[in-house]
Amino acid sequence: MATLAHAPSRPAAPPRPSDPAGPSGPVRHLGPNWYATVMGTAIVANAGAALPLAAPGLRTAYQLVWALSGLLLVTLLAARTVHWLRHTDQARRHLLDPAVAPFYGCLSMALLAVGGGTLTVGRDVIGGPAALATDAVLWSLGTLVGVAGAAAIPYLMVTRHRIEPGSATPVWLLPLVAPMVSAALGPGLLPHLPAGQARQAMLLGCYALFGMSLLATLLVLPLVMSRLIHHGPLPLALTPTLFLVLGPLGQSTTATGNLADVAPGVVDAPTAHAMGAFAVLYGIPVTGFALLWLALATALVVRAVRNGMPFAMTWWGFTFPLGTCVTGAAGLARHTGLTAFTWLAVALYALLVAAVAVAAARTASGLVHGRLLTPVPPAR
Fold it and tell me: For site-directed labelling of 89, which of 47, 81, 335, 379 has its Cα 20 to 30 A away?
């Protein structure tokens, strides 16, 4: 893959005297990609709650996973705040690096995923009013950050980054899919709004977020496919990011289903009926393409493993996108009544749990041995 370079910028400022760790502090190389651990953990609880499974202990397991995702979110927010305050030079470099900057979309999705899980799973632990307030804050903040990132990161790519032809990767999708997560989780808040204009504005606003993300994704996907066809497979460490393409596919299917669920009584009956039909007519073809992409991505990952693909934080790319396909398939099962979609959701959920278990175990091992918070050479 062609090396990604960024436009020259001002020389990095020296470490602040108040930084006791100096240039090699423990959070200096803690990038925004670490929010993927929050997303991947939270989606296990959120996707599990969407499944029609009632085995004993499942609800408790979802609650434990949700609590862990919340703890991870708080820890990373604190660590990233320290990163920006004490290692401002490195933070600027991240924004000016086209290989790193798109990962800022993960912050928005981490906030949204934990917020959505709080309302669907965490309410059993902290109570309905507290869960609603938490989700309202996290959804609002996550949506603002997501929309800002969806505009700011492409702006930086156009004005500050120098990107070689044929260097597109699925990582470019990260800031663009964040508004789609807002569209998918916003319907959970809609019934708690005052009837009338407030609910209608939320419903249509979520459709606007859906369109914002969908059309931007449609601009980038051809670039990714063109890069694969004309320049061959991604570098080994980046191969797991192929699964990121599943994110906008599964999340958009989830969004149309969730929006159709809350449309009756918010808009007139014909419009609500059309939204329900759209959820099926859009979701089924997109799910078909998602399964095709899953097969292609899996084949390329198997090839990369055979060639010695090392563990990297990109392995978390296996997790959240799979979870969105679970929720998308579960939504299609609700709207069509077909048990085939339920079985598909359950099968994908099993893959999700396995992926999260492997990524979490390897991440924990990497942290213990000090391999993950050191600078990584660019992939070639």
Answer: 379
Q: What is the pLDDT of residues 204-214, one digit of tens each?
A: 999 999 999 99
The two most distant CA atoms of the chain are separated, in Å, by 65
Q: Which two tokens stand for residue 109?
A: 């999705």
Return the closest-CA partner of residue 335 out of 283, 265, 290.
283
Closest by CA position to 214, among listed 171, 184, 240: 184
Task: Tell me which residue has tokens 């601009």.
Answer: 219
Residue 37 and residue 114: Cα distance in Å, rounded? 11
Name which of 350, 357, 338, 220 is nearest 287 in CA terms. 338
List the structure tokens of 238. 């980046």
Instruction: Return the sign of the alpha-carbon dihedral for residues 76, 82, 84, 89.
Output: negative
Asked whether 217 and 177 are in contact (CB, 8 A), the reply is yes
Give residue 375's pLDDT: 65
- At 282-315, the pLDDT tens digits run 999 999 999 999 999 999 999 999 999 999 999 9
Q: Which residue, 99, 106, 124, 93, is CA-closest to 29?
A: 93
* Burial environment of residue 9 by CB neighbours within 10 A (0 to 12, 13 to 18, 19 or more): exposed
The CA–CA distances, whole Å, from 160 to 157, 170, 266 equal: 6, 20, 44
Token digits of residue 354: 């396995």
Cα 277 to Cα 331: distance, rounded to the nearest angstrom: 13
Q: How far apart are CA 17 and CA 232, in angstroms?
A: 46
Q: Write a three-state SS string for the chain.
A: CCCCEECCCCCCCCCCCCCCCHHHCCCCCCCHHHHHHHHHHHHHHHHHHHCCCCCCCHHHHHHHHHHHHHHHHHHHHHHHHHHHHHCHHHHHHHHHCCCCHHHHHHHHHHHHHHHHHHHHHHHHHHCHHHHHHHHHHHHHHHHHHHHHHHHHHHHHHHHCEECCCCCCCHHHHHHHHHHHHHHHHHHHCHHHCCCCHHHHHHHHHHHHHHHHHHHHHHHHHHHHHHHHHHHCCCCHHHHHHHHHHHHHHHHHHHHHHHHHHHCECCECHHHHHHHHHHHHHHHHHHHHHHHHHHHHHHHHHHHHHHCCCCCCHHHHHHCHHHHHHHHHHHHHHHHHCCHHHHHHHHHHHHHHHHHHHHHHHHHHHHHHCCCCCCCCCCCC
